[in-house]
Design brief:
The chain is an alpha+beta fold. It contains three helices and two strands, in the order H-E-E-H-H.
Length: 89
C-alpha cells in the first residue's frame, strides 16, 4: 500500500483509515518514530518492539556489521522491494 500523507499545523500527521483499521490503531496509541538516515520507521510502543530492537542489535554486533552497512543494506532491500512491487524507482 502506498499512501500520501501531509504534515499539518504543529506537525500533525493523519494516517489513512485503511491502515488504522488494518492495524487497529486508535486515538491515543503511542508510537516510536525512528529516523534511519531519512527513512522514517513508525513502530507501535509495545513491549515486543524494544526486545526485537535488542535482538537486531545483538545480531548486528555478532556479524561484525557496522550501522552504516546495516542502513545501506536496508536501503538496497527497500529499493529492490519497491522495484519488484511497483516496477519503478
Amino acid at each position: 500500500m502506498v499512501s500520501t500523507i501531509q504534515v499539518r499545523k504543529r506537525g500533525v500527521l493523519t494516517l489513512p483509515s485503511e491502515l488504522r483499521e488494518k492495524y487497529a490503531i486508535e486515538e491515543g496509541d503511542t508510537f516510536r518514530l525512528v529516523d534511519m538516515d531519512g527513512i522514517f520507521v513508525l513502530t507501535p510502543m509495545v513491549p515486543m518492539v524494544p526486545e526485537l530492537a535488542r535482538e537486531i542489535e545483538r545480531l548486528r554486533q555478532e556479524s561484525g556489521m557496522s550501522m552504516d552497512e546495516l542502513l545501506q543494506g536496508l536501503r538496497e532491500e527497500r529499493a529492490r522491494y519497491y522495484q519488484e512491487k511497483y516496477g519503478e524507482e
